[in-house]
Amino acid sequence: MREIRMTMTEPQARFFQLPDKYPAFVGGFGTGKTEALAMCATRDALESSSALIALYEPTYDLIRLILAPRMEEKLSELGIRYRYNKTENIIYTANGGCGDFVMRTLDNPARIIGYQSYRAHVDEIDTLKKDHAQHAWRKIIARNRQMPKGLENPFNRVSVYTTPEGFRFVYETWGKNPKPGYAMVQAPTRTNPFLPVDYIDSLRASYPPQLIEAYLEGRFVNLNSGCVYPEFSRVLNHAPTVAMPGEPLHIGMDFNVNKMAAVVFVVRDDCPHAVGELVKVRDTPDMARMIRERYKDKGHAITVYPDASGQNTSSKSASQSDLTILQQAGFQIMAKSTNPPVKDRINSVNALILNDQGVRRLKVNTDLCPTYTESLEQQPYDDNGEPDKTTDHDHPNDAGGYFMVWRWPVVKPIATHGAHVPHMRR
């Protein structure tokens, strides 16, 4: 039997050795959740050549960009030969004594069918809505019943790895009143001794205060109570900024029939300054005309950051999309194929309103942007923990957010993993 060594942080080592049927690794950014998943999944596969280890991510993109590369890296590092079938999303190993890995998404739990797994590892399940996560969890544990050949006492287990996202599924299942068999390891970011020196400071500069406990300390905190933008102040975030003649303008835009909204920004010292708004506009042709008359015809270069749904057909013209109408008006368009997650957009805006170092970068001329000011002050969360859309405060906020998440996205600094812990024998 050859020796296999794995290097771990202290929380990873505690998690690796848990004997429970349903363990959860709940950690802040940079704590090595995906690395812990890869190590534990590989350990499980080495119990039997017939073992099938199921690995889950919220979306296919996360499988393609994060999970599959990490598993390939881990197998190569341990000298385990494999073949990755991207069509089936299965990693087949060629080593005697090592099982295979099937990778699936959580976006449609009804598709978690057609196979039985010996062990399962679920990444970032807390990013799902509570009901969705509960449904996916039940489907996963129902699939987790394989009895691999050669094991006298096979032990089926499902492990979870996630950043805490408020009082959602993981809190209810592992934090509040866990049933027998449910165990949790919580890992603060500072427990990883191999992070870059400025990693934590970078997070504090990029994130609003209400997220630091969750994303640095790995704690369950209420991320959804009260207002969507709780730190916005019409006094502290106010600036009397106006657009200078010929100054480039950046316009965030939200599409809604008879409720179109746009927020006009200039950028000073790498900070967004809201200097104008257009609200309750009928449709895209009207919006294009108003922007052209107010700004473009007066010498301003216009860049629009729209809702990505504007690539669909305009409500006014069956032959043109909203983005086409804006392009024909002479505006530069900055839009991806899909919108970023709502959470990412809100985090970007909140980090600009006030970051954890006490710096306010978003400035709003509250005299020129009265509706946008009121919307930032008053938009609440609904009963499902989503931004409320019943008061129309969402339209200006979404519009401004599309620009800010494009220009100042909240991006996790690149982290490393590791510290020392036990080795395995094969």
TrEMBL record:
<dbReference type="InterPro" id="IPR027417">
    <property type="entry name" value="P-loop_NTPase"/>
</dbReference>
<feature type="region of interest" description="Disordered">
    <location>
        <begin position="373"/>
        <end position="396"/>
    </location>
</feature>
<keyword id="KW-1188">Viral release from host cell</keyword>
<protein>
    <submittedName>
        <fullName>Terminase family protein</fullName>
    </submittedName>
</protein>
<feature type="compositionally biased region" description="Basic and acidic residues">
    <location>
        <begin position="386"/>
        <end position="396"/>
    </location>
</feature>
<dbReference type="Pfam" id="PF03237">
    <property type="entry name" value="Terminase_6N"/>
</dbReference>
<dbReference type="InterPro" id="IPR035421">
    <property type="entry name" value="Terminase_6C"/>
</dbReference>
<dbReference type="Pfam" id="PF17289">
    <property type="entry name" value="Terminase_6C"/>
</dbReference>
<feature type="domain" description="Terminase large subunit gp17-like C-terminal">
    <location>
        <begin position="251"/>
        <end position="404"/>
    </location>
</feature>
